[in-house]
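Hi! If you just cloned this repository, the fastest way to understand the data is to look at a raw example. We've pasted two of them here, unedited. The first protein comes first, obviously.
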Amino acid sequence: LSSLKKFDEIKKANQAAAKKLVEDQLSSSSEDDDEDAEVKQGKILDKTFTIYTSQTDGDASELERTRQYMNEAFQSGAMTCLICIASVKRNQAVWSCCGCFCIFHLVCIQKWAKDSLFLVSSPLTDDDFGKKDYPWPCPKCRFDYKRSETPSRYYCYCGKVENPTVDPWLVPHSCGQICEREFKPSCGHKCLLLCHPGPCPPCPKMVTTTCHCKKAKAVPRRCSAKAWSCRLPCGRTLLCGQHACENPCHAGDCQPCPRVSKQRCICGRQTAERLCASPQWQCDQVCGKCLPCGNHTCEQVCHAGPCGDCPRSGKRSCPCGKTKFTLPCTEDVPTCGDSCDKVLECGIHKCSQRCHRGPCEICRQEVEKQCRCGKHTKRMPCHKPYLCETKCTKIRDCQKHQCRRKCCSGNCPPCDQVCGRTLGCRNHKCPSGCHRGSCNPCPETVDVKCSCGKTVITVPCGRERTIKPPKCKQLCSRPPTCHHSTQEKHYCHFGRCPPCRQPCQKTLTCGHLCPVSCHDEALVKQTGLHQSAGPWEQPSEPAFIQTALPCPPCEVPIPVECLGQHEVSPLPCHSANPYSCKRFCGRLLDCQNHTCMKECHHVTKLNSSADGKKAGPECSQCEEECTKPRPAGCPHRCVLPCHPGDCPSCLQMLKIKCHCKLSVLYIECLKLTCADVKEKELLLSCRNQCPKELPCGHRCKEICHSGDCSLNCSQKVKLRCLCKRLKK
C-alpha cells in the first residue's frame, strides 16, 4: 500500500509538470501573445527612433535597414550565431562585427579568433612565430581584425556599457542610451538613435552646402545628402587644354574629352582621327633613320627625339666577356680562344668549352648526388635531378594525413585532400582543403516557406529545422474537405484545416435545413480499447477517429395542438406529433352537469358542425347520482341518475304527524312541497278536535291546527259569587 501511494504521488507530480509545460508552450505560441509581443515591439522601435524622426525631422524611410536588424533582434530564432548554428538569446553575451553587423556569441567568436590565428601561424618556424601580427577574419564578411582586437568582454551595441542588463522594454543587448557613434563616412556628427544593432542610418543634420561645380548658391540640405548637382554644364577645362566639360554638374574629375581630332603620331609620319583625350600615339613603322655611323639605320619603332649612337660602336666584349675589342661597327667581335668559364645551369660547375657564341651546353659531369630527402646517394650526371622512391611518412599540417610524396625534402606541402567533414548545418560537407580546427560556417542559406509558399524568410543553412515557419497573411487556398463548396476564410497554415464551422444546411427529411455546424469530419473519442496491465502503466490517451456524423433531429419549433385542443405549444420538428397536455379533458358530458375527468385525449368528432367542447365517444360516461337541488322540503333524492334538465316530480309518500301529534298522516311529497301555507295547514291537519287544554282547563274546541290554541274559550261554567251564596 505504501509503495502504491508513493507511486501515485510521483505520477500526479509528473502529470502536473507535463501539463504546465504544455500550457506554457501553448501560451507562448498563441496568437494573443504574438499580438501583444508585436505591440510591445512596435512601442520599443518607436521609442528608439523618436529622436531621429521628431527632433531632427529625419526621413523614416532611411531607417529601413536599421529597422530590419532590430526586427531580427526581437524575432525568436531570427538571430543565429553562424559559428555554432544556435539562436542568440537576449541573456547571452554577444559580439557584433563592425563590417557586416552580424551577431555572434562572445564565446564562439573568441574560439573562432583563437583557431584562426593558430591555423595561420602553424606553418611558421619557431624563429618567425610572434614576429608578425597576423589578422583573424569575421566568419561572415571575412573582414580582418588584428590580434589585439579579439573581443574579451561583453559590451552593448554602442560600446558604452559593459554587461548591459536585460530589460524587456529595450532592444536586446542594448543599453538604452543614445548611440553617439560617428557616421560612416565620417561627417563630424554622431548617431542620434538609442543604442541599436546594425548600421547607423544616414546623418539627418542640416548643413549649408553648394553644388559640385560651385556655381549655384549654397542651400540647406541633409548632411547625408549634402553633395548635390545643379544640373548646369560643368564648364571646367579638360585635360586636352582645348575644350570645356559639357557634362552636367558632377562630382570628382571630369571625364576624358570625348571629341575626335586629327593627330600626328610621335614620329610625325602618319595622321589619324583620334580621341582628343589621347593625343600621344605610336604608329607601327620602324624609324629607319640613318645612325651617326652612316652604316646602319635606327631599328626602333616610332619614337620621339634623336635616334642615339650606333649600338655596335665603341668597345665590345667577346662572347665569354673576358676580352674587349675596339672595332668598326661593320665588323663582328671575334672569339678570344680562351675557355668560356660561365657558370652552368647547375650553379656549381663552369663551362669548359672555348669562348663561343650562343648558350652553354648542359652540365655533363658525374657527381655524387644526394636525393631530396637525404636518405640515399647516387653517382649520376650533374644536370639530372635525383629523386628516390621513398615515400614521406610525416604528417601534414592538417595533422590527419601523411605526406606520401616521393623523396620529400621535409617541407611537406599543404594537404591537398578535401576536408569533407559534415558542417554544423548537417546538410553540407566542408569543401575546403583538409585543415585543423573547426570548419568554417556553412555559407549557404535556406528559404523557409509557409505552407502556400508565398511568404519566405531566408535563414542560415541548418536553422530550417528549428526555426518556426513564417506567419503568412494569405488566405488558405486548399479545397474544402466537407460538402460545402467553399470553406471558411482562414490564414495559410500547416497541417489539416480547422474543423468547418459553417452551418450544415443539408435538407432534412422534414424539409428543413440542418442548422448545426458542419459535422462531416467530427472527432469521435474511442474509449475502452486498451486495458492497463497494472498501476505502473501510464493510461493511454483516448483515441480519436474522424468520421461523418448524421444530422441531429430537427429542432425547428412547430406549433402543435394537444389532443384535447386545450393549448398550442411549439415543439421540435422531429417530435411534432399530437400530445397530451396532462390536463383534464373538461368536455361537457351528456348529463350537461359534469365534465370529462380523463387526462387530455383524442376526441372523435361525429359531426363537423358539433361544438368543440362537447364530449365524444372517447370521453368517460357520467356515473354520478343526480345532485341537482331538490324542492324546498323534499328530503328525497332524484330517482334518476345524473341527467340533463329538471328532475321529475317526487311521488313518494311522506309519513308525518299532524299538528296535534296524535295521528300519522301519509301525504305525497309533491303536494306538500308545492302547497302554500294555508294548503300545508290543511294537509297536516287530522281533522279531529284539538286535544290540547286551554289555560282554563277546557279542551280546545278547534280542529287540529298548528301553533297555540286561541284563548277564547266559549264553554259555560258554574260560578259562585264572592259570598258563595249564589251559583250560576
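Ok, and the second one:
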Amino acid sequence: MPSRKFADGEVVMGRWPGSVLYYEVQVTSYDDVAHLYTVKYKDGTELALKESELRSQSSFKHRKSQSSSSSPSRRSSSRSRSRSRSPGRPAKGRRRSASQSREHKDDKKKTIQETSLALPVSVLFESLNCVSSFHQKPSENNTKRYNGEPESTEKNDTSCIILEQKLKPDLEIKRVLEEYSLRSRKDDKKKEEIYSEKKTFVAVKPVEKVPSKTKELEFGGRLGTFMLIFLLPATVFYLLLMCKQVDPSLPNFPPLPALESLWEGRVFGVYLLWFFLQAMFYLLPIGKVVEGLPLSNGRKLQYRINGFYAFILTAAAVGILLYLQFELQYLYDHFMQFAVSAAVFSLALSIYLYVRSLKAPEEELAPGGNSGYFIYDFFTGHELNPRIGSFDLKYFCELRPGLIGWVVINLAMLLAEMKIHNLSVPSLSMILVNSFQLLYVVDALWNEEAVLTTMDITHDGFGFMLAFGDLVWVPFVYSLQAFYLVGHPTTITWPVAAAITVLNCIGYYIFRSANSQKNNFRRNPADPKLANLKFIPTATGKGLLVTGWWGFVRHPNYLGDIIMALAWSLPCGFNHILPYFYVIYFICLLVHREARDEHHCKQKYGLAWERYCQRVPYRIFPYIY
C-alpha cells in the first residue's frame, strides 16, 4: 500500500474541482482504501481530493519567486543597453522604449499566468484588471485625477483591485481568462503537463467523494438499529390489532393472537404473485428512460419511468377481478396475515441485499451504510443501488409494490365497509380518505422522475429500513384510516367534508409546487421559466433557492406533507387517537429527516448554507419551527 504524502493538519494547496485554480486547504483525514484526502477550504467547504490534486506550499513559493525574479533581470538588462547608446540617436531610442514597453507587458502577463494556479480568485482578478490598464494610452493614464489631484502609480495599481466573492463560478473564471488572452502560446508543453495528469483537471463539475467508512451513526447507532429491527414490525402489528378492537383506546391493550393464525401459505402465495406482477410491469418496454444523478464515480444509472403505466395496468387487472366477482374483501379478512407475509418477505429480501453487498465494489456502497458494523449496515443498507442486470431493486420497491398496494388495500376496505354495514354507497368519510390518498399516490407515480433526486435514491442504501418501509410500513400503516373506518364508522356532514377537502388541497398545493420548483431547478437552472427565482450560489456549482416556497421555510414539502396527513385523519373523527398515529409519526419522521438534511447540507454547502439559514430562519413551520 503506498504511503501518504501529506499528514493530517498539514496546510497545502488544493486544486478546486472543475478548474485549474489552487487554494490553501488543510488536510483533515485520509482514506487508506480510496486513497483520497479529505481537505477543508477556508470557507468551511470539505471535499475529497486525490494526491495528484494537492501540492505543497513550497512548490508554489518557488514557482512564484522564479517568475518574479525573471522580469527585473530583463528590465535591468534593457536599461543598461539603453544607457550605453548615444543620446544623438533619438529615433532608435524611442523604438527601443516601445520594445521595452511590449517586453514589460509580456513579462507581466507571464508572471500572472504562472502564478494564477496559486493565487486566490480575488488576486487573480486584480492582476487581470491591472494588465488591462497597460493597454491604455499613456496620456490617459497620466490625466486621471482623484479629488482634483493627479493619481500616482501606486494609487492606480490600488484602484485595480476588485473585491470578488470568495468562490467565483468556474465559467466566469474561464470567461475572464479568455477575454484577456492569458493562454501561453510559447509554453504549450507546460500547459499540456497541467491538463494531462490523469485528466482530472478537465472536470466539468465536482462529484461526490467515493464512500468511505461511515463515522456518524444515526438511529441510536448499533443498539438503536438492533432495537428498531424488532420495534418496527411490533408497531405495525399493534396498530392493526388495535383497529380490530371494539374499543381501540390506548390503555386497552389487544390480546395476542395465536401464532398459527398469523400465517397462511395461500396468503403468502398471493403476496408473491402481487410482487412479481409489479416486477413484470416494471420490466415492460414502455415509458421513457432517463438518467439519475451522478454517482460517486461519476457514472449515471438509467431508469425506466413507467410507474403510472403500471398503475393503469394494475387498475385494469383489479377491474377484471371484480368483474369476475372476486371477493376483494379477502384482503380485509386476512389483513394481519398479509402484513406478516410482507414482513417475512422484506426480511428475506434484506438478508439477500446484505449478502450481495459484501461483494460490491467500494464505490457502489452507500455513504451512510458503510460503518463496518453488521447490524447497522444491515438496517440502513450497505449497497447504494443494488441491481440484477438492469432491474434496480431499490427504485422498484420505492414506488411499485407498496405504494400501488396501498391504493388496492384502501379499495378493499371500502368494499368491506359496504358489505359489513350493508351500505349501497360508501360512507362520506371513507370516500374522502380514499380520494385524498389516491391523489397522493397518482401524483407520486405521475412525477416518478422526481424521486431520482431524493435522499432515498441518492444517499440511503437499500437495507432493512427501506425494504420494510416500502413493502410493509407504507401499505399497512398508511392505510390505517381506511382500516379503522371499517370497524368504527364515522359520520360527518357535508360542510365538514368541504372544509377537510380545502385543507387537503392546500397541503397538496404546497407539497407539489415546492417539489416542482426544486426538481425543475435541479434539472435545469437556466430554464427561462425559473428566471424569477433567486438563489445563493454554492461551492458545488448548485444553488440554494431563496424565493418561492423555499424562501418561506427550508422544507416546504414537509409542511405540505403534514397538512395532508392531518386531512387524511380528520374524517375518522375524534373518538380515538389511533387514526392520528399517522400524523404524529409523520411529524416525528419529518423532523428527523429535516435534522439529517440540515447536517448533510451544512457539510455539503459550507458557508453558503449558513447564509441560507440566516435568510430563511424557519425550518418546517413558519414562525414556529
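That's it. A detail worth noticing about the second one: Residues 10-59 form a domain with the SH3 type barrels. fold (CATH 2.30.30.140).
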